[in-house]
Write a sequence for this structure.
């Protein structure tokens, strides 16, 4: 299908869009948030169609599509003023309290609306490249080799970005919860 | 010597890698030793585990692209393919007319199939 699309077959491309639209939208949603996800996913598909002739089948179509989607999201982020990453003062280690209900808590099976909101808000405080790497690793379940290929960086850099993103995310999540408990004023 | 804050950040990342199951051998044992000695590191590892479970859960939630976005992308591809074909067709047609016109005016000496 991808090969047919790369020869300019719009019907085949349409089929690819229908098959992979979930992937593109999901990644855009997690990197950019709900407000910008739709525009970014449309832009990613436009870029995909424009560049489909360069798809040679050296890698899986999904890897190629991830690359276009992530690049589109990162360039959308670059257009905006840089969001401040949560800073770690280092005085106290971040800590997420155990959810009420102990091991039987349904957190492992389903997230409440509030938890989802908290996660997405905390992701916003992670630097865009680190966030993209974190999303690809811990939400899309990709290997470091795949992440490195998508982000076009060496494996070690991909690993470092995931690691930084993970730490920054935990700091943001903890501070968010602390802010909320303290009355949710300053952020 | 490494500043205290950098050292703490390094621990933060190392414990995160451990919680994600990415450390092996001596590195993993070092973190286990730290966690054994320091309850706050143990709590940190537990916090990471909770966060990673939540991220994984969120990652597994089904997400469907809005139909608008899908339809728009498909329409754009069809329109673009149509324009590309139309451009090729019009270009070829134009060249044929030009050839015919040049032939009509007798500006081209060679004739079709007959040599010079």
């Amino acid at each position: 299908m991808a090969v047919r699309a790369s020869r300019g077959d719009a019907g085949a491309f349409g089929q690819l869009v229908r098959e992979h639209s979930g992937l593109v939208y999901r990644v855009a949603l997690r990197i950019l948030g709900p407000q910008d996800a739709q525009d970014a996913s449309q832009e990613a598909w436009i870029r995909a169609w424009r560049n489909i002739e360069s798809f040679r089948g050296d890698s899986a179509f999904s890897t190629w599509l991830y690359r276009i989607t992530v690049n589109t999201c990162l360039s959308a982020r670059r257009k905006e003023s840089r969001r401040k990453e949560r800073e770690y003062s280092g005085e106290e280690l971040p800590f997420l309290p155990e959810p009420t209900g102990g091991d039987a808590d349904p957190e492992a099976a389903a997230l409440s609306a509030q938890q989802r909101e908290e996660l997405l808000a905390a992701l916003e405080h992670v630097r865009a490249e680190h966030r993209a790497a974190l999303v690809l690793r811990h939400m899309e379940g990709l290997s470091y080799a795949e992440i490195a290929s998508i982000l076009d960086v060496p494996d070690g850099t991909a690993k470092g970005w995931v690691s930084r993103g993970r730490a920054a995310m935990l700091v943001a999540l903890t501070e968010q919860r602390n802010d909320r408990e303290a009355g949710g004023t300053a952020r | 010597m490494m500043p205290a804050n950098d050292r703490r950040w390094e621990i933060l990342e190392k414990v995160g890698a451990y919680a994600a199951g990415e450390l092996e051998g001596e590195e993993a044992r070092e973190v286990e030793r730290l966690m054994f000695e320091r309850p706050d590191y143990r709590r940190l590892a537990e916090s990471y585990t909770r966060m990673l479970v939540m991220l994984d859960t969120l990652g597994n939630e089904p997400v469907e692209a809005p139909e608008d976005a899908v339809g728009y992308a498909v329409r754009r591809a069809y329109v673009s393919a149509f324009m590309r074909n139309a451009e090729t067709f019009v270009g070829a047609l134009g060249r044929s007319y030009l050839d015919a016109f040049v032939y009509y005016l007798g500006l081209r000496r060679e004739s079709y199939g007959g040599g010079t």
